[in-house]
Amino acid sequence: MVSSTKWRAVSAAVATLGVVAACAMMAHAEPESKPSAAAPVVAAPAGDNDSALGIERLSFLTGTWRGSLAADPATKLEELWTEPAGGNMTGAFRWVTAQGKVLILEILSITQDNAEVKLRLRHFAPSLDEMAKTKAGPLVLTLKSVDGRKAVFAKGQTDASGDLESITYDASADAGATMTITVAFTQPAPDASKPPRKPLVMTMKKAGAEASPAAKPK
Length: 218
Hints:
Layout lengths: L3 H25 L34 E7 L2 E10 L6 E9 L5 E12 L2 E9 L14 E9 L2 E5 L9 E7 L7 E8 L14 E7 L12
């Protein structure tokens, strides 16, 4: 006759074998089919027109512009801009003095940085050696306003703008065939020995564009 102690031991062993068998069956069983989870929704990148100051509104800059300083018509200035694409517009600028010397070259980039539009530029010599002014990094301005064919970039709170205060592109005249570029600089303190620096004003004509009839010489 099996003692109660032995019987309890046998019962425990059988129970243990049952649990092990059940675990083995579960391990080999096919997983229960579950409804497939919905694919995560990825937000599309913000389009150029999603912001009131979207980069598409600067398309009036596209093209090649030639002109001179308002204060020195003998200078030869040239600036060109690509059309907006991929949240970017790329530009180049050349300044030739009245004596025929290239004073400065610039590479410019306008980018859509989330809700803001930034203008960045670097200065180069004709040899493409970078000038001291932008060796540490590009000068940066933020787009503050767009009104038709007029755009104002100005120094933002975190912008490394050097001595730049603002750059205004105004192509309101001649149905966009003429553009005035005004570069304003930060001014020295009233008690500084340096005199206030006057803005640079450039008058440019768009290559291939005709002036409006009212502006044509009679």
